[in-house]
Amino acid sequence: LVALALLAMGYIRWRERNLVRHRRILEETVALRTSQIERQKEELRELNATKDKFFSIIAHDLRSPFNTILGFSDILLSEHRRLDPETTGKYLTHIRDAARQTFDLLQNLLFWARSQTGNLEYHPVSFNLGERIEENLLLARSQAEKKEITLTSDPGEERMATGDIHMMDTV
Fold first, then answer.
1. How far apart are CA 105 and CA 115, in angstroms?
2. What is the spatial distance between Cα 76 and Cα 119, in angstroms, rounded to a whole number?
3. Is the pTM of this model over 0.70?
């Protein structure tokens, strides 16, 4: 009986030490997980703030071309009978340029979104770097003019590059 009682007491003591050890391991694991969750929470907060700022910039960049399209189309609709063909052509050119600018911006946004989700394929080709720069400056030129900023490029001699044109446009 004494041996059985000692054995039972030894088992109880072993179990208590085991429980204490397991509790300590569990507390350390919970503390580690809590720390990881807090870090991830902060990263998500920062990413969300970046996303909000990005959407604000995009909304601002899209507003101007749409205002141009809406403004000139309203003039054409209300004044089309009184406008001379030259003025009508000028207004239509503004509408087309604003629509093209908006379309190019949306294309770049879609490409960027795909790059952020990992659904991006690299398709390198040879292209004239000066032409790409000039074409991309056209996207920003009307916005820059409204802010009295002059955008210039000096393509100089032809510079060929190899890379993905869409990635270059996004940059």
1. 15
2. 42
3. no
Q: Convert 44-65 to b/e letters by CB count within 10 Å (16 or more is b).
A: eeeeeeeeeeeeeeeeebeeeb
Question: What is the chain's pLDDT, residue by residue, as a tens digit (171 residues)?
Answer: 888 888 889 999 999 999 999 999 999 999 999 999 999 999 999 988 888 888 888 887 788 888 889 999 999 999 888 999 999 999 999 899 889 888 888 887 887 777 777 777 788 999 998 888 888 887 777 777 778 888 888 877 888 899 988 888 877
Q: Kindly state the tokens that stand for 95.
A: 């509408």
DSSP codes, 39-70: HHHHHHHHHHHHHHHHHHHHHHHHHHHHHHHH
Reading phi first (left if > 0) and then psi (alpha if -120 to 50, else beta), residue 164 is in: beta
Sole residue written with tokens 């600018």? 101
Strand (E) positions, 53-149? 125-128
DSSP conformational letter for 125 = E
